[in-house]
Design goal:
With 414 residues, this protein is α+β, with helices and mostly antiparallel strands. It folds into two domains: 193 residues, 3-Layer(bba) Sandwich (FAD/NAD(P)-binding domain); 148 residues, D-Amino Acid Oxidase, subunit A, domain 2 (D-Amino Acid Oxidase, Chain A, domain 2, 2-Layer Sandwich), CATH 3.30.9.10. Helices cover 36% and strands 28% of the residues. It contains 13 helices and 20 strands. The strands form three sheets. Strands 5, 6, 12, 13, 14, 15, 16, 17 and 20 form a nine-stranded mixed sheet that branches. A hairpin with a 5-residue loop joins strand 9 and strand 10. Helix 2 packs parallel to helix 6, helix 2 packs parallel to helix 10 and helix 10 runs antiparallel to helix 11. The structure holds flavin-adenine dinucleotide. Flavin-adenine dinucleotide binds next to helix 2, strand 2, strand 3, strand 12 and helix 10.
Length: 414
Amino acid sequence: MQQSHIIDVHTAASQKWDVIVVGGGMVGAALALGLGQQKFNVLLLERQHPDLQWNPEAAYGARVSALTRASENILKNLGAWQGIESRRYHPFSAMHVWDEATPSEVHFSAADMGEPNLGYTVENSIIQAAIWEPMIQLPNIKVLLGEQLEKLDLQSEQACLFLKAGSELKADLVVAADGAMSQVRQLANIGLETHDYEQCAVVGCVKTEFSHQDTCWQRYRKDGPFAYLSMVNNVSSVAWYLPTDKMQWALDLSDSEYVSALEEASAGKLGAVTEVAERIAFPLVRRHAEHYVKSHLALVGDAAHTINPQAGQGVNLGFLDAAALIDILVAARERNKPIGQFSVLRRYERWRRGDNALVQRSMEGFDWLFKQDAELKKTVRKTLLPMANNLTPVKNWLMSQALNGREALPTLAK
Ligand SMILES: Cc1cc2nc3c(=O)[nH]c(=O)nc-3n(C[C@H](O)[C@H](O)[C@H](O)COP(=O)(O)OP(=O)(O)OC[C@H]3O[C@@H](n4cnc5c(N)ncnc54)[C@H](O)[C@@H]3O)c2cc1C
């Protein structure tokens, strides 16, 4: 692999950057790539270089994302989509949601909406590698690996990031793309609204007896939802939601006990589970940063917000953050405004924070409706779901909101 994109700390400290992006996960890398294509000088800090080698025989990764049309457009416009196509991905054409406690069900179909599909399931490691590939070809993006942060100074004319090893990195703008536990957000003293869903998600890929029919299946159960996201052939990615106190129990199950539990949770929808791969689990917490920006600082992706993954929106919202921030910074430069100026960055916050909060809250309403088995909720579900299923325009509108995004779309998402 070509290594000229990796620089050492002395080289990084010897120049002033337009933007330092901390975190080269899916969102941070997409932001760095987009800014690099717009001719900004970008330094990307990441703990570890992702593996860009592709082995088609590799086992399926446990972490998978359902990508929306808006994300597909962003990745295509960034030149990252071909890296996904050349590896492994899967378009799904329907989504079937049903309820354990009532006979209600809703079926969303791409054909009904006149869409080619309802999105794509892709392993996170593939999305990240597909973004890194074009990113490291750009001469104005450099990568600094494995450095630890100590302090962030946003009070001067520029941002100054102090490293534990003693060096200082300077930029007009620092972007926190360092995930849910963002250290940059903490160093900037930005508070966090949090809500513990008291639920965890057990995820991993499995093979099943019957084909998934290119459909994502989601069953609402007393303990939480269970989903099969369709991947290639008979492979599906499992998302099994449970109360947090059952997380360790689920991880400790033997493979044969795990198989039985999945068959029970899915009501045998895809027949027997014939093969299981690595499984991992996450406690689920909603987080929302109280501010997305300060002078010389912006937060994107999970560093700004985490959401209940039931709707599969987390990274999709993060890509919209990145694309919106790119539009704002390009517009500021065209008007000769400093890109680290608070009033410039506030435009980004106004654009994205409300939309992200709306998606977080809508997911909670949905989760609340299905979570408990109170008679009233069951009656509401029994009434609303068949209505939604029969009202095709309403159903299509709901799906279109999830697929295409709600607010005015950034340039890259069109
Ligand atoms: C069970 C589950 C299922 C999900 N399913 C979906 C789905 O179907 N669709 C969807 O859209 N979203 C989904 N999500 C959410 C999605 O996974 C996240 O929103 C997404 O991974 C966030 O990407 P990110 O780049 O913002 O953060 P991360 O993926 O957390 O990346 C952060 C990066 O920053 C690096 N980093 C951290 N600290 C430092 C530091 N100090 N210095 C340098 N680098 C640092 C890390 O190494 C990492 O590479 C799901 C989440 C869960 C838990």
